[in-house]
């Protein structure tokens, strides 16, 4: 879905004859605004129904490439799907229990559209903030106004490292500063170092930020 554009060049330059599988095949894409252009949003794994599609595509491709071990691939796939369904039940129970007024979040990285759509959370991007550098005083003031007007409950700003600035945004906007949400990559170690671990971590982080009155 355009998330790893370098992969196409890699495949061409290796001149491999191996089949190339698109793991996201069958996903109904959301769209994303990228520098004024509408593009398919590639962050589809943040909806577990899509994760199920990825698993099915990968399983089918492995079986096609190595039919002798079909039973193993099917067994492992079923075991993994069980983990996904347990996670789905957890996501629905936790995020479903949030009060209707506690469902608005601002994140600096526009990566959670699928999660928001699937589990009823409204993710908003900060207006006019560059992700490349620390925001100016005027940009912070505009962000605070946006948070107050939309009655945003929690803010996750990966690009603001200055803890005083985060405290100022929290104090003046009334929103809670959440922890880290993992968007595009697994952590090298710790709970978010697997896909299911990452997803569970994000659910718990969102729940902690949004469940308090
Ligand atoms: Zn991303």
Q: What percentage of residues falls in helices of 4 or more residues?
A: 40-55%
CATH topology of the largest domain: Rossmann fold
Assign the structural class, choosing from mainly alpha, mainly beta, alpha/beta, alpha+beta, or little secondary structure.
alpha/beta
Bound molecules: zinc ion
Mean pLDDT: 90
Task: Tell me about this structure.
By secondary structure, the protein is α/β, with parallel strands linked by helices. The protein has two domains: about 5-95, Rossmann fold, CATH 3.40.50.1980; about 100-210, Rossmann fold (3-Layer(aba) Sandwich). About 45% of the residues lie in helices and about 10% in strands. It is built from seven helices and six strands; from the N terminus they run αββααβαβαβαβα. It has helices spanning about 5-15, 50-65, 70-95, 115-120, 135-150, 165-175, 195-210; strands at about 30-35, 35-40, 105, 120-125, 155, 175. β5, α6 (about 165-175) and β6 (about 175) form a beta-alpha-beta unit. The protein is globular, with a radius of gyration of 19 Å. The two termini are about 40 Å apart. The model has no long low-confidence stretch (mean pLDDT about 90).
Secondary-structure blueprint:
Layout: H1 6-14, E1 31-34, E2 37-40, H2 48-65, H3 70-96, E3 104-107, H4 113-119, E4 122-124, H5 137-149, E5 154-156, H6 163-173, E6 176-177, H7 195-210
Parallel strand pairs: 3-4, 3-5, 5-6
Antiparallel strand pairs: 1-2
The structure holds zinc ion (ZN).
Zinc ion is lined by residues 43, 109, 111, 183-184.
